[in-house]
Request: fold
Amino acid sequence: MDAAARVSSKGQVTVPKVVREALGVEEGDQIVFRVEGNRAVLARTPDFLALGGTVRVPAAKRNVAWDDVIRKTRATRAVGRR
Reply:
């Protein structure tokens, strides 16, 4: 699907209704622009809260402070690089 929009004097663009509907974008949603060569790709940002519980967390990393998880992961990776 192709849809066109005009850039305003303030550099703003209104996302055409057909594009908003196709992506399921509603008022207040965030979108992301990714530049690929001479094109920009527009995408709806995922709702990360909706992903809660979908990723299996190893028992060793459950109920552990996030800083500790990062520290242990970095230490493990550093040992593997030697």
Summary: The CA atoms of residues 22 and 43 lie 11 Å apart. Residues 49-81 form one domain. The two ends are 50 Å apart (CA to CA). The longest strand covers residues 31-36.
